[in-house]
Every structure is written in structure tokens, then in C-alpha cells.
Amino acid sequence: MVCFSQSTLNSLNSISPNKTDYAGIYIHLPFCVHKCPYCDFYSATDLSLKQPFIRALMKEMAMSCDIPFPFDTIYIGGGTPSVFSARHIGQLIETAYSLFKILPDAEITIEVNPGTVDLDRLKEYKHTGVNRINIGVQSFQDKNLNFLGRIHSARDAIFAVEWARNAGFDNIGLDLIYGIPNQTKKSWLMDLKKTVELAPEHLSCYTLTYESGTAMNNDRQKGLFCPLPEHLVADLFELTIESLIDYGYMQYEISNFARSDSSKPGLSKPELNKSRHNRKYWSFAPYIGFGPSSHSFIEPYRYWNCSDVQKYIRDIDAGRLPIEKKELLNREQQIIEAIYLGLRQTDGIQIDIFDEKFGVNFKKIFKKIIMDLEKNGLLRLDQNLCALSRKGMLFHDAIVEMLICRKI
Fold this sequence. Notes:
With 408 residues, this protein is of the alpha/beta class. The chain has two domains: 6-281, Transcription Regulator spoIIAA, CATH 3.30.750; 347-404, no CATH class. The protein contains 17 helices and 15 strands. It has helices spanning 6-13, 50-63, 86-99, 119-128, 142-148, 154-166, 185-197, 215-221, 230-246, 276-281, 309-317, 331-342, 351-358, 362-365, 367-375, 390-393, 396-404, and strands at 23-29, 70-78, 101-112, 132-138, 172-178, 202-207, 249-253, 256-259, 287-290, 295-298, 301-305, 323-328, 349-350, 379-381, 385-388. The strands form three sheets. A nine-stranded mixed β-sheet has the order 7-8-6-5-4-3-2-1-9. Strands 10-11-12 form a three-stranded antiparallel β-sheet, with no helix packed on it. A three-stranded antiparallel β-sheet has the order 13-15-14. It is globular, with a radius of gyration of 21 Å.
């Protein structure tokens, strides 16, 4: 672990960007009306801190204004960003444009909870410059929403999507969760069918996980419910891919799907419907995070903020960046991340770039492992790409472990 002084951080900001490296800005708004029992992202429910937080957040952005990268994405996540008014969201976007080099066609996303928006608020978000909206639907069935502790109903979720379209958004993403206790293939297909009827441009389908320290995991450990067996979750994973392909969605990452849209001129593939911002996390592109618990990455450096909104405000008010830890990734760590992140994507690892970056021969180093994985139908290899099969994606973490245990 490397500790950065302020002067070291300043030197980070002076790194000359690669002309092809467009960076992303992530803004974490950590406030929620109610903490979902499965969520392990940092959030707070004391909404009285919203105003001093916004002031501190804009000050943190100003303290980092000499970062030289051009930015082509701004992602406002949380928490529940939609507990903030359009005035606050507009202030954040205006601050970003005034301090950083934001490209004219930047993708600007906000996450919203269906229980916190209406048509007027969504129209106001659109007016501030937001051009992509990500709606945390999770399910279109009330029994699932109740188990997940969501504050919205299935009816609210449908209205939120329709309102977003009526507000003028032509780039809508939905989040869904599967692997819920007692969930069946029929039940999950109902959610997928309702989703595609609403025709979002993007879908993120996540398996329900039980993270340490969450209320849901505590209930699981107490035996208050029985998780869906792993083999049934695997069946739902494969069903998700098969169904969405039939509905015209292309999988481009384990959990992410983009709609093909031949009606748009020049768009025969779903490239424009992929999340431009999220792809940065999987491709070693630089990104800067603002707000409590947010992460920043400027290769080979990573640093992240404290996960405490009150401490965050105190640090900013004292003129200190609220950085909790900093890390200089060594060669081994970079190789591990390149393999882990590369194999999450359906395109896989681009071998020539990997070899040039790390000065190795990927095919030679992993020849025996690759042969075994190919034989078992878990991996596919062509001249320049190494990617997991659909079956292999079920064992992503185990396969990565096999590869990184091979000394490079």
C-alpha cells in the first residue's frame, strides 16, 4: 500500500493522458429514503445532510479541477440520486462542465428509484442535461419487491419507465435482480417479458448476493429464509441470456445487455446502447470519483474516499481531500485485473494488447489451462481473443483463479 501526499496527488493530475483515453466522472450521492436489506453500497438515510453534502461535493470537485483528461461520461449514482431535486443535479452537472473538459456528446447518466420520481421530475432532470437514465426496477412483481425491501411497487416501476420515455429519454437502462428465494423460471420469464415490452435500450440483470454485514445476509444466517439453490440460479442465468437474445438484446458483459436497434441510421449493432461509462471500469480507462466511498483510477494508481458522509463533509470543510486509502498497482495486480475484467466481457481478452502491455506471450503461458478449459466447453480462443463461453461465465471467478495462480 502506498500513501499519497497532496504533492503526489498533484503529480497524478499532471499525467499526460493518452489521446484515445476518454475518462469518466462518477458522482456518488449516498442518500436513501430506506436502506435495502441486500445492498452493501455505502448510503445514509439522514436526509437533513443533503444541503451541506452538495456544498462539500462541489468543493471536492473544485479541489480536483486540474486533472487533464477529457471526459466523455458523467455517472450520478448512489444511494438514490433521485432524492435530490433537479436543481441540485443541475448544479453538479454545471460544476463538472465548468471545471473539467467534458466532450460535447458526453453520456450523462442518473440512477433513479421508481418510488422517488414522477413525470415532472424526470422532465426536469432531462432539462439539466441528463441524457441517460438508469431505473432500479429490480422486479415487476410486488412479492419480490417486498422481499427485497424496495420502496416502490410494480405499478410504480412501469410508470417510471413510461414517464422517462415521455420525458424525452431515448437511452433508458433498467436494473433487474434474479435468484430470489422461491423464484421459478416462469416467474423470472414474466419479469423479462414485461421488461422487453417497455423496450429499454439497456438491461443489467444481477444475481441476488448475500454480502457480509447486510441485513439480508444476517436474516439468511438466522435461517429466516432459504436462498435459491445455486443450480437453479445457474439455470436462471442461462435462461436470461437465451431469452434476451431472442428478444433482440446482446450480452456484452456477464450482467449487461444492450438492445439491437436497426431503426437507428447506421446502427446495426447495439454499440450505442451499451453503457459507455460502465465499460470504463472493465477496460482500464481512467475515471474520477467524487463523494463518499467513490473510487478513482488513473493507471497504475487507485484511490478511494471515506465511507462516512459526516467525515466527508468535515474533511472538505477543513480543506482536505476525503481520501481514505491509496494504492499503486504493481505488475502482478494489473495482470490479475486485466484477466478478471477481460473475462467478464463477452469479447474477452484481446491477446495482442495483453502481450504488449505486460511483455508476455499469453497463449504460451496459459496453453495447458486454455486447452483444458476449451475441452470442457468453458472457454473459446481464436487468433486474438480469449473469452469465456456462456457455460464458462457461470464459473468466472474459479476460472480466473486458475489463470492467476499461474506465475507470470
